[in-house]
Structure formats: structure tokens, C-alpha cells
Amino acid sequence: MAELRAAYGHDPASPRITEVVDTLCARSPEFAGLWARHEVKGKTRQAKHLVHPQVGALDIQFSAFTVGGAPHQQLVVYQAEPESATAAAFAELRSSAGRGESAQVAREESRLALSDTRLPA
């Protein structure tokens, strides 16, 4: 919530942001209560959990840095913890990309998807 308010603070006159906040406040008393706290916090470091179709679960940390001289711009760096299962999964993806396997897997998945949607003659 505090991060949404920080984004809102960059452009409080935006009709789209106002519409989204008004809609959420009307539909969710919990959201309205949190919004009324007026807490503001920019993203600096957080974790994300993703699922990749080839390597499965990925737990990624990210850090966001303000870019001097570029208002409202951030540099976001994503990384896996060293020696983690996610770091090993990234290594596996790099290896398969180097061998062209990612493109090959994508072509095969597309071919299979198309064969599943064809109508019988």
C-alpha cells in the first residue's frame, strides 16, 4: 500500500490513478483503511517467487535504485542468492540457451499446442 501511495505521489492529478484508488476504496473497506493511513514507501529491496516452465520455482531478490537526474526512474536489479536452488536454475537456463534448447523447446511446445487444437477431418 505504501508503495502504491508513493507512485500516486508522483502524479496525484492522474485521472487513472484516482479512478483505481476510488474503485478499490469503494469495494474494499480494508483497502480504504490502509489508504487512509497515508503511509509512503518506495521499493528498495524485496523478494519475488516465480515459477518458470522449464526449471520450476525461482526465489529472486531485487533491489531498486533511484536514477539521479531522471525523475521517477529506477534501476532494478534482480538476483538469486549465491549457491541457492534458484542460482542453479539460472545456470541451467543459461546452459540450455547456449545450446539453443530454449528455442527448440518453444518450437516443440508450439507444435504440440497446434496439434491439440486441430479439428478432425
UniProtKB/TrEMBL annotation:
Residue spans crossing the bilayer: none
Limits of the MmyB-like transcription regulator ligand binding domain: 2-93
Source superkingdom: Bacteria
Spans annotated as Disordered: 98-121
Pfam families reported for this sequence: MLTR_LBD
Record-given protein name: MmyB-like transcription regulator ligand binding domain-containing protein
